[in-house]
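Quick look at the format.
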Amino acid sequence: MDFKVLGRLMKMVFKDYPVHMTVVAVCIVLSAAIGVAPAVYIETVTRYIEEGLLSGWDAVSGKILSTILVMIVLYLASLILTTIHTQLMAHVTQGFLHNTRVRMFSTMQRLPISYFDQNNRGDIMSRYTNDTDTLRQVISQSLPNLLSSGLTVIGVFAMMIYFSVPLMAVVLLVTHAQTGLTVACIGVIVAALTLLVMALSHGRAT
């Protein structure tokens, strides 16, 4: 991924739609934070249940109900925020693509005739169709997903540190070992299949 090009693209989108993109960024940040927050509430509900088993449900039933209501409100807020930023991004995407095509056509009108002689018509039209369609996918899907996923990962690490640093270290070590084992197994399987194909090809040749 060329982050320089990505940064230039984001700068152009923010320049065309500063208010919309600011609202989208705020909605994504809040949605990612809300997506991580229920882990704390689940731990709280579990603690209340343990207290209820020891001291009776009457003492903790109100606390459990209020915590569950807060979780429901958070999930509804996350749904509303996701809907808002999805609709705004759809509007931003269509408007930005229109502005991009206008800029491209304006620039193309100033190009010399030799440019059109040296480039095929299909290549020129592809910039207005295929290339702009790629921009649509990047702006409407890739950029929001990249921001949301990055914030979610940061939030998950923060929650892991909050609950237990040693447990986080164990999870990271296990994940690293699992990834290395998976890569090694895939390499062995690919090598074995390659040898098998070579052996079969040699058998047919003889």
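Next, a different chain entirely:
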Amino acid sequence: MTKRHITFILYSFGLLLITLSCGPAPKEYTYSNFLFGSQCSVKFYYIGDERAREIIDVIDLELTRLDSLLNYFSDRSLVSDLNRKTRVQAPGDIIYLVYVCDSVSRLTGGLFDITIAPLLEVWAFYHGEKRIPGPDEMARAKNHVDYRRVRVTTDSLIIEPGMKVDFGGIAQGYAADRAGLILRQRHVKSAVIDIGGEVLVIGQSP
């Protein structure tokens, strides 16, 4: 093999490498919705419009499902149903989430407590008002706040009359984790997930 042949082969191989490295660049895709009482968005980079649209559809299905379960501000959500009826059937992932909440509550000595809603109501936090409740009102609300009195069966959540559950301290972060799992399972390498201020980042900006 002559020197000219070797040079030609190396040149051709170099062109091949350049061609392979210059494939289609990932495009930016964005999903946005108003869920969990706040604005949510998912931005990710991917190659393939059809597949990217499928990913957006899956994310939308999962986030709207979680919103229908955990949104305190929706009268039709599972948590609102629980607060009205004191007992509801719940899917397995929500049962698991309640166990996670219980563990965090025990680790923090009750500083994290999903039954905090009665206190938030008397302080009018849900309505954006500035109000200081009286001592008797505070005492009555505190009587209904205790994470240890939330009961869980294999398929149901049970609270005592007067108690109310609010997953606001964990729902948005959990939703961000679920969206992140969907993206990772589909080999997305770069994404920013913002669920009402709870941000999860995958990889780096391309």
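The longest helix spans residues 49-70.

See the schema section for token definitions.
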